[in-house]
Amino acid sequence: MSISLTKRNFLVQLAVLTLLVGWGGAGFLFYVLPEHYFEGYPFIPGYFFLFGVFEIAMFDACRKYAPKRLLQLYLAIKILKMLFAFFFLVAYCVVVGEDKIEFILTFIVYYIIYLVDETVFFLSYEVKKKFKKEKNENETTA
């Protein structure tokens, strides 16, 4: 099974971001704000990593089989991510019930960090794709 360069780059970037933000956030909460550290913290980076893997798998499949639908898929995945995040937050608050505010605030910070990262990644992908297309058109007409 071969993996596309885009998928590989996204997964590496996702893994590095998850490790940096995960360990950095855990260290910050554990050492700087120990009263706000909660046992459910590791579930947050795990959620975003797993959803990122799902996201790039869907993106890669769409890129291969329905490339004109990439924008629609991107928006649909963002909506799906928001809905799953809502259900994840509600489930945590109902099941665990402790440290709700800390969990929700930490989750929101993670959501914003990953949203910015994914937006930058996919924007750079689209810019590179457009640049390649223009370059190919210029070479064809020359």
How is this structure best described in words?
This protein is mainly alpha-helical. It contains four helices and no strands. The mean pLDDT is 88.
What spatial form do the alpha-carbon principal axes imply?
A: elongated
Number of helices: 4
Determine the structural class based on helices, strands and strand pairing.
mainly alpha
Q: What would the average pLDDT be, to the nearest integer? A: 88
What is the first-to-last residue Cα distance? Answer: 38 Å
Oligomer: single chain
The largest pleated sheet is described as: none
Gyration radius, in Å? 18 Å
Helix content: over 70%
Number of DSSP E strands: 0
* SSE arrangement, N to C: HHHH
Integer count of domains: 1
Tell me what portion of residues adopts beta-strand conformation: under 5%
Low-confidence stretches: none
